[in-house]
Amino acid sequence: MATLVVTPPLLPCPRPFPASRSAGPAHRLLARPPRAGRPRLRDPSPAPAPPTPVEQSADEAHDYPPLRLLDPPQEEDPYPDEMEAADPDFYRIGYARMMRAYGIEFLEGPDGMGVYASRDVEPLRRARVIMEIPLELMLTITKKHPWMFFPDIIPLGHPIFDVIESTNPETDWDLRLACLLLYAFDVQGNFWQLYSDFLPSGDECTSLLLAPKEDLMELEDQDLSSEMLKLQKRAVDFWQKHWHKAIPLKLKRLAPDHERFLWALSIVQSRSFNMKLRMGAFMQDANILAPYADMLNHSPDANCFLHWRFKDRMLEVMIKAGHAVKKGDEMTINYMSGINSMLMQRYGFSSPTNPWELINFSSPAKIHLDSFLSVFNIAGLHDELCHNAALTSGESNFVDGGVVAAARTLPTWSDGDLPAIPSVERKSAQALQEELRKMSESFSTTIQQDEQILDTDEPIRKTREIAINTPSAVGCAGTGYTGSCSYGKSSIRWRSTRIEFCSSCIGDTSVAVPSVPVKTIPLLARMLV
Ligand SMILES: C[S@@+](CC[C@H](N)C(=O)[O-])C[C@H]1O[C@@H](n2cnc3c(N)ncnc32)[C@H](O)[C@@H]1O
């Protein structure tokens, strides 16, 4: 496959994207969007204070602002006694609504743009609204026949309609939504044409759909890299089938090259979600791109969730009931409870504390489930492991994701399987530890080297070459290369995540820990005591 170079300016009013966004620890306030390219950390423009939003609870969220287009008459008492005012929603039909946000700001942080609390929030017994996004700003395609999209922006007879119609609604949701997104970018004055300034450009996007083969090799994971190559081929085949030479210009200009289509698909995959929406009497299973809500980063221990308010067709982002939030805290949602390779495939990131991560052991050695769980104050069975607060002194109730994941995946035996002989258990723990050690040593770099590679702006492949040949030289200038793309960096992070995960299970403190602080827990080592 051809090497992909993706820096697509948007049609029909191209605005150049800077080649890459500089990463840094500081957060920058995004108050007024500049009109050329995605706002970046280094943009010096002073940020005017945003209008102070009024905080609302879930209940209060139903006090709507006065209507602009269809204000009710202003007389003192316009209605005779026997008449009742119609449902306020009656007036709102057809009313063009805006997104509203309460007590949050959009800032650039270590995981790209994110949503952060702009003030403290006391825990409430009920969930609390922080964002409201009306249906008409979202791009939505329902999953099942008869499928439909909202808003209905595609005129009858436009060729993109036939392209979408040719897909399988159940399996091709991403291709369909990418077509709709490309169409929305092309409609003069459409909301998405303006919002595209805030979407990551090709080299800012972490999606591996954009990664050239050489960068996929950096994953050092055969299964994941061949899966990504298959997904890239699927997208390019789709583009070639529908964007052949003899097509009308109004279709051609939506994706003049396959890089443009792959970029739209990456945006869709890494920023959309699936939700059941109640529309009138019907329940629709829909794939959705929701502006502003798509700035929320992922956490397995998220403090927010999404909720569909069917009454006025509004997507709400809500803080979970009982959650205290401090000013500056990141607001997150849980994208999925899945293993790291699933997160990598769809979003291009992985986490060393992912509680759903797995390690496939080949050793027949097993350790006792009960003793393992009690060492780490974990309760429950394999599928629903949770922290056992009753067993702790109350000092810390945090259980490292790596430990929970190990508890779920370590080969264990329970009473009745085998007699509890300490020497058998010790031998098993040693065998498993050895297997983990071999796994972490099978990678071509150490965590330390990967960290150095990530710290440089050099292209990944070049720095890795240097790292392997002369370990201390990584980070030195003078290779003549500049810039490395986000997807290349996410490949390196994936490799580090795997090494770190193994070492946190081994408890080997001699392995360098990356800059993201992760508890290094001497897991199997403690089992040996
Ligand atoms: C829905 S977008 C969130 C907004 C995004 N950070 C941005 O800059 O526009 C999803 C993307 O954010 C990044 N991301 C989200 N959660 C992350 C996490 N926990 N760790 C690292 N990257 C994350 C990944 O690049 C992912 O593809």
Automatic annotation (TrEMBL):
<feature type="region of interest" description="Disordered">
    <location>
        <begin position="1"/>
        <end position="83"/>
    </location>
</feature>
<feature type="domain" description="SET">
    <location>
        <begin position="102"/>
        <end position="336"/>
    </location>
</feature>
<dbReference type="GO" id="GO:0009534">
    <property type="term" value="C:chloroplast thylakoid"/>
</dbReference>
<dbReference type="GO" id="GO:0042793">
    <property type="term" value="P:plastid transcription"/>
</dbReference>
<protein>
    <recommendedName>
        <fullName>SET domain-containing protein</fullName>
    </recommendedName>
</protein>
<dbReference type="GO" id="GO:0000427">
    <property type="term" value="C:plastid-encoded plastid RNA polymerase complex"/>
</dbReference>
<keyword id="KW-0808">Transferase</keyword>
<dbReference type="GO" id="GO:0010027">
    <property type="term" value="P:thylakoid membrane organization"/>
</dbReference>
<keyword id="KW-0949">S-adenosyl-L-methionine</keyword>
<dbReference type="InterPro" id="IPR036464">
    <property type="entry name" value="Rubisco_LSMT_subst-bd_sf"/>
</dbReference>
<feature type="compositionally biased region" description="Low complexity">
    <location>
        <begin position="23"/>
        <end position="34"/>
    </location>
</feature>
<dbReference type="InterPro" id="IPR050600">
    <property type="entry name" value="SETD3_SETD6_MTase"/>
</dbReference>
<keyword id="KW-0489">Methyltransferase</keyword>
<dbReference type="InterPro" id="IPR001214">
    <property type="entry name" value="SET_dom"/>
</dbReference>
<feature type="compositionally biased region" description="Acidic residues">
    <location>
        <begin position="73"/>
        <end position="83"/>
    </location>
</feature>
<dbReference type="GO" id="GO:0009658">
    <property type="term" value="P:chloroplast organization"/>
</dbReference>
<dbReference type="Pfam" id="PF00856">
    <property type="entry name" value="SET"/>
</dbReference>
<dbReference type="InterPro" id="IPR046341">
    <property type="entry name" value="SET_dom_sf"/>
</dbReference>
<dbReference type="GO" id="GO:0032259">
    <property type="term" value="P:methylation"/>
</dbReference>
<dbReference type="GO" id="GO:0016279">
    <property type="term" value="F:protein-lysine N-methyltransferase activity"/>
</dbReference>
